[in-house]
């Protein structure tokens, strides 16, 4: 079982968590930066600005108070002046309140220090204003006396001095307010820049993590794809390296195991394919083997071939030499059959049995493919004859070698036949015996390839044939024409020999012995070694000498 911490789910979840953490960190930083700027704004709006506005109002009130003192207005000693002085004291108290509040909430140390610096200034202005009120009280008490004039002079000087202090305080506050505004704006811009930078970094980190995870996922998948394409092209030697411990790693291991099983199946097919046709091996090891191997009746074309001159060869070779020779012969002959999608059923001594049937070849193409394979065998035989001196280690006195082939077509039972211990995928039916009889009949007719009527009809114009005889084969009760396969369509055209033979054979079947004899003799004049003409000429002479009472044109073969 795959560990959760190494699974694809965890990797994808890890990317999501990483992005979430990065975004949360960016959000926290942005929140803190915004809160810091907000506190700076709060310091300005809740302390600095009210302090400056109150100082401005106080300065205006003190200017009025100073005017009254300098010009000794009539109301200087009245209630109006006292009320104004009290208002100034209240404004000073309000300024102190704003100053303390600013000192408390200030975020920047420079702001806190400034509020601390303002404390003695406000206190000094308040103290001097108190002294000014005392001077005005003495002035009002002394009246128009020398003492009153001295008190008036002190009051004027103190009022001017307070004015200077208030002006300095106002200028200082105005400059610091402008500085505070600039600082707030600068900090706000820095916070915005830092937020953008952090969000960008978080996005880049997230994208990098996503790229790492994506590459970690796609690279093994791409290796799997390449491996699958290699297997599809037939390369079973390639294994995909397992580089991860997640689900893809498990799939890769399973894929490699599958390749191993496919390789094993191919080895089985290659091994057993030497004894059984590889296509049958593929069917046997498939999931649908039982149904595919069940017996079925279907159209089959049977092939039988026999090596002429085998006995003299066997007598002159050692067992090892004979096996080597026969393996070379069977290899050459089998290649021609398999090239036309035929199934090698068995090797019987020096004979070969094969068949064509669905699903190994398209329905209806069996007879034509079998004819092509039979004709191709003689091309392979010519090459085999050239190799014979090396195979037999002889340069002279080589035995003559030839092959005879019989082809028949019809319905047969096809399937896996045998005991529980051993089975063979083969065909059974009268058509098999017919193919064997036709192969043997070549000996009597002096031909190399004989086919029956069914093969002739199914192959049609794709082949060139000569009707050799009409016979009842050994073991059969019905008459059947037999044909000599002379080539593919267009190769064995109706030459003079075939035309004369057909005419002579027609007379033979009609019982016109003289015409038949004359025709077969004419064939021998054209081709003295023609086996069918020689056999039919001798038979015609025999029948002419002792005419049968009933003649149907059919010859019954008494031997296999």
UniProtKB/TrEMBL annotation:
Boundaries of every HAMP domain copy: 215-267
PROSITE patterns in the cross-refs: GUANYLATE_CYCLASE_2 (PS50125), HAMP (PS50885)
Keywords: Membrane, Transmembrane, Transmembrane helix
A cellular component term, taken from the record's GO annotations: membrane
Keyword Membrane: yes
Pfam families per record: Guanylate_cyc, HAMP
Domain Guanylate cyclase: 301-439
GO terms (BP aspect): cAMP biosynthetic process; intracellular signal transduction
GO-annotated molecular function: adenylate cyclase activity
Transmembrane segments: 12-30, 193-214
Protein name, UniProt field: Guanylate cyclase domain-containing protein
Gene source species: Sphingomonas sanxanigenens DSM 19645 = NX02
């Amino acid at each position: 079982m795959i560990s959760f911490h190494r699974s694809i789910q965890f990797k994808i979840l890890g990317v999501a968590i990483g992005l979430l953490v990065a975004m949360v960190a960016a959000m926290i930083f942005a929140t803190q930066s915004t809160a810091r700027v907000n506190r700076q704004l709060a310091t300005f709006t809740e302390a600095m600005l009210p302090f400056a506005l109150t100082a401005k109002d106080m300065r205006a009130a003190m200017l009025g108070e100073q005017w009254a003192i300098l010009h000794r207005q009539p109301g200087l000693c009245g209630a109006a002046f006292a009320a104004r002085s009290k208002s100034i004291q209240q404004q000073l108290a309000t300024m102190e309140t704003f100053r303390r509040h600013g000192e408390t909430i200030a975020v920047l140390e420079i702001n806190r220090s400034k509020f601390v610096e303002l404390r003695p200034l406000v206190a000094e202005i308040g103290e001097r204003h108190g002294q000014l009120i005392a001077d005005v009280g003495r002035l009002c008490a002394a009246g128009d006396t020398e003492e009153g004039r001295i008190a008036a002079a002190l009051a004027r000087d103190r009022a001017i001095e307070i004015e200077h202090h208030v002006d300095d305080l106002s200028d200082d506050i105005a400059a610091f307010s402008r500085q505070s505004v600039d600082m707030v704006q600068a900090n706000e811009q820095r916070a915005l820049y830092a937020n953008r930078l952090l969000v960008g970094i978080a996005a880049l980190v997230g994208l990098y993590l996503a790229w790492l995870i994506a590459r970690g996922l796609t690279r093994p998948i791409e290796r799997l794809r390449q491996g699958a394409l290699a297997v599809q092209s037939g390369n079973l030697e390639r294994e995909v390296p397992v580089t991860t411990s997640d689900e893809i790693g498990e799939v890769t291991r399973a894929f490699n195991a599958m390749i191993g099983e496919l390789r094993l199946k191919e080895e089985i097919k290659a091994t057993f394919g030497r004894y059984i046709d590889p296509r049958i091996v593929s069917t046997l090891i498939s999931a649908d083997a039982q149904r595919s191997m069940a017996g079925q009746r279907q159209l089959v074309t049977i092939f039988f071939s026999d090596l002429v001159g085998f006995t003299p060869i066997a007598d002159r070779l050692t067992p090892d030499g004979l096996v080597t020779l026969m393996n070379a012969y069977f290899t050459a002959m089998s290649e021609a059959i398999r090239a036309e999608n035929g199934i090698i059923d068995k090797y019987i001594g020096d004979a070969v049995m094969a068949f064509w049937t669905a699903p190994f070849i398209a329905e209806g193409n069996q007879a034509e493919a079998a004819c092509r394979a039979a004709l191709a065998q003689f091309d392979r035989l010519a090459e085999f004859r050239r190799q014979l001196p090396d195979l037999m280690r002889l340069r002279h006195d080589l035995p003559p070698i030839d092959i005879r082939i019989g082809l028949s077509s019809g319905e047969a039972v096809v399937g896996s036949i045998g005991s529980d211990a051993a089975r063979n995928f083969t065909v059974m039916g009268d058509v098999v015996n017919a193919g064997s009889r036709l192969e043997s009949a070549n000996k009597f007719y002096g031909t190399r390839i004989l086919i029956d009527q069914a093969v002739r009809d199914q192959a049609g114009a794709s082949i060139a044939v000569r009707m050799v005889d009409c016979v009842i084969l050994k073991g059969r009760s019905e008459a059947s024409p037999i044909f000599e396969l002379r080539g593919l369509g267009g190769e064995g055209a109706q030459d003079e020999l075939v035309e004369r033979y057909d005419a002579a054979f027609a007379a033979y079947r009609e019982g016109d012995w003289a015409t038949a004899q004359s025709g077969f003799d004419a064939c021998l004049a054209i081709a003295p070694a023609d086996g069918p003409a020689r056999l039919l000429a001798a038979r015609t002479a025999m029948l002419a000498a002792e005419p049968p009472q009933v003649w149907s044109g059919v010859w019954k073969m008494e031997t296999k």
